[in-house]
Amino acid sequence: MMLLSGDPPRSRLLSVLLIAIVAGLALAPLLFPGAKPLNVATKICIFAALVASYDLLLGYTGTVSFAHTMFYGIGSYAIAIALYTLGPSWSAIALGLAVGLPLAALLALAIGLFSLRVEAIFFAMITLAVASAFMVLASQLSWLTGGEDGRSFQLPELLRPGTVFIAKDVLGFAVNGRTLTYYIIFVGCAAMILGLLRVVNSPFGRVLQAVRENRFRAEALGYRTVFHLTYANCIAALVAASAGALNAMWLRYAGPDTSLSFAIMLDILLMVVIGGMGTIYGAIIGATIFILAQNYLQALMGLASNAAAEAGLPLLPGLLHPDRWLLWLGLLFIASVYFFPTGIVGRLRETSRSRRPR
């Protein structure tokens, strides 16, 4: 309870889902051998932390920002440039973090101080303009960022796949540098999510929720709303930059498509809505469902299409064709918004509350 700052899931089914997801991620290198399952598990860890940091803004303050991928990209590029310039060493990783994280926090501070005084829609437009300008800048500074091609780099020897700690013939699975990198990412993302749980359940987090509900009333009570919103923006930027650094370390690459793309921002919004706004647990659920659907829905539709064709069913083989997986992903999102307007976590908590005896 202390670890979660007095904020348990408050639903038995939600608790089971969270335990299953965390256990699956913790044992992913052992239970799901192969490159793709490990890549999917890593992406779930990274996006769970990234979505949780965005939920701190959208779900707990009601602030819509389109600059979150900019902070994510700053962390990615800081690590990539440091390792590309200085070579594969731990000091280069430390330097990348020492430059990238404060830079993200300073940009978030500047955006907050100069933009959070305006109305919500104008703040969203300002952050969109800043993020677009940063993307153009990253593409044009080819001498530093590699331009559209990005930067590829090598990791320290301990984190390379060729470094074997335990051979496969000893325990039945190999433990190498790639496995160590995964667990660094897993532990780092878990620590960030637990830290955000403490933030939102602290007195500071309660003020953020008061600002979300009624900003003028919060100001009338004596709270400096611009300070609290700016501070929350800086915390979210630090977590996003850290997630970007971990993503770059896993991919051993940083580029516009993997770090600064507006499609990443749309994915973050979808994960927040699916999981449930204003619930850090929703980031874990939303990221897991969305990324699993992204990677495995097409294959499942292929199996279903073949089964329908073999059974001689009309129309279904065409409707379930793997090339239409994006259509079905969109329909699943619409259905989740319709049936779970407060997100999966919010709906599970409401169901659990209604079943509780008065």
Automatic annotation (TrEMBL):
Localization in the cell: Cell membrane
Protein name listed in UniProt: Inner-membrane translocator
Annotated organism of origin: Rhodopseudomonas palustris (strain BisB18)
Membrane-traversing stretches: 12-32, 38-57, 69-86, 92-114, 121-143, 180-200, 221-250, 262-292, 299-319, 325-348
Keyword Membrane: yes
InterPro entries with a match to the protein in the record: ABC_transp_permease, LivM-like
Coiled-coil regions listed in the entry: none
Gene Ontology molecular-function annotations: branched-chain amino acid transmembrane transporter activity
Pfam family, one: BPD_transp_2
Domain of life, per lineage: Bacteria
Membrane protein topology class: Multi-pass membrane protein
Keyword terms of this UniProt record: Cell membrane, Membrane, Transmembrane, Transmembrane helix
Cellular component, GO annotation: plasma membrane
